[in-house]
Amino acid sequence: MPSPLVLLLAVAPLCHGHGSMNTPPSWLDPDGNWSKMWMAGGSGAGCTGAKFPPAEGCVMEWYSNYTFIPGEPTIPPMSPLLTYKDACMGGAGSAACCKAPCTNASMQEKGQPCVGCDWSRKNPWRAPGSAPVFSPCGFDGGNPKGCPVGNPSKEGCGGGGYGHGPDGRSLKGNTKPEVWYAGGVAEVVWGLSANHGGGYQYRLCPKPKDHLDLTEECFQKMPLKFVGNTQWLQKGGLFDTRVAISAMRTDVGTSPPGSQWTRNPIPACGGFGGGSDTPGQCDGSQFPPPVPGVTQFSMSPWSIIDKLHVPNIPGDYVISWRYDCEQTMQVWQQCGDVRIVAGPAPPTPAPPTPAPPPPPTPAGDHCNNPLCESCCTGGCKGCKGYCETNKDGACANCWNEAAGAPPCNRRGVSCLADDKLSCEACWSSAPLPSEWKVAAAAKKLTAAPPQCDACLTGACKSCKGYCELHKDGTCAGCWTASNTNGSYPTQPPCNLRGIQCLADDGLGCEACWKLPPSPPGPAPPPGPTPAGDHCDNPLCQSCCTGGCKGCKGYCETHKDGACSACWTEADGAPPCNLRGVVCLADDKLSCEACWSSAPLQSEWKVAAASKKLTAAPPQCDACFTGACKGCKGYCETHKDGTCAGCWTASNTNGTYAPPCNLRGTQCLADDGLGCEACWKLPPPSPPSPTPPGPPSPTPSCPGGSYAACIGYCPSDPASEFEACLAECRKRCDPPTRLQTLV
Fold it and tell me: Residues 81, 84, 89, 94: what is their CA dihedral angle, to the nearest 10 degrees?
């Protein structure tokens, strides 16, 4: 039987992409765009689309390859700090490995039958921090001297690496350093692209004028200490998935002596290759997962989050994240900029006082109050729990009063507030404050008062639907009082809020539309009964039940006054059909086609067919596994802050929107035909082992950019990875416009 070491060398070439520091942003993410997306192991930061190899420059390629600990392991066999099973723990190898004297570490290299039993004994994690590195910021390709050493070509390196890449210290740095407060606590995040086990550490070095003056020795003088023994996992940008887990840390046998390191908490799949040798399959795990189901080798969606003690020494620093592998002889590193500023001194702990008697068991909450809807079932729901006591990182949006934040309570547009009168009041069993009661009373009206007339039949009627969720373009007037912008001089006092049709607290026309209207007057003589319409076609949804519904009838023959928005192609107008963002058009091929009994034009039929798909097409890949994955959930109803990129086409901001859906390079779209359409379909089946075929006669660039395209590429095996990256380079260099499904 081959020794475990021989098997390892056979597996190693299958490994591509490994780990990356996401927060603080590394120099490979100078503007912090990838950091904001919480991409975990799927980040495409730094990808340039170089001719060879295609992955050159990508964040997953900065490391030191073929490096070993200089002495004996300080993490012994059978240690709980190990992340890959040795032979005696069920891994590959001879049964003799599990018998004395081979279980003695001192016998591992004495000769057969013990040789190779402790196959990872010289790999970096076995003595954390002691394996030498080529650069404290990593080397692109991991092999600065070529493969083998002296080979002038970039080719010849295994494991997805290549030779003669640049030193990470040659990068320019971040446009804005991450700001930390002296003596405080900072949150840091990294993610896995390929799980080689091991563990990691964060270190600082005073920022020199020239990055090339940075040394590993400088960073080893200032290792950072983790806060407590708790860390967190979070799936992409879904903040309500954040879960606390116990961290396994060590400061014994580490370099520098006494420095603290943390074991990688996510186990690789079972088997000697950890999943690299069985793409798409994961049988068992190397150690018990901290959360059921969190076991993965390639492109883990889970971010690994820790908190660090910040030194009480203000200044400009470079942070180095170092990840020492156990499965492979590799050390992964990236650097970023951090500025430590003086802040308020940490409060002096008060002397302990006797614990107060426990409060009475809560009688319940106020989730049955209509004003609490967003707190209990809507956009603010994810703020409950962890974010109630934390304002940093992903929780910042819960505390920010900003345009676009969920208007879920009487406190304006902030989910949480220091006085506990925002959503905290909804979640509490204490009586609601008086201002909540006043608003609740307005919600309990059983018939529409006279102030609601204009909401039901007048100028505010057209604000119902699309504009309830949008404030830009033609919807702006619905949210603005006439005495502030003068654009609607005849805007009536049409609701309980004065002269504003819609309001963040839901007490504008929204309150009126939830009440029964006044009895209608005599109905006009009925017109001819139409033979039918196309409202059962999914593409007609906005015309028949959404934002364009109010344009039917009078506005079909009138373009002035309140009807003008129905005929205007402008940002913010409802994109309810194949005519772009206009409800009505002179050629009658907009919503008129939906309301008519005449057959739909051919372009409608093609689009309708796309709605009847029974399985997600390839264009949906990034919605399920790539860059758009983090947009699902909170960002489907929010466009501000970190969600902005989900709603923006990459050709307008050049950051990260991929061609991940039926809409081109925009993850989410107002008409629901972005990733929303993909998420309603069964996810795609795992990719077959067949390498990508030749491009079509008119190939498109998946992702609209090289950086996004590589998000589709499988991590393993090597042949598929290289073929996919080569195809991305061919299609995206120079960039080409994505051809949508329709």
Answer: -140
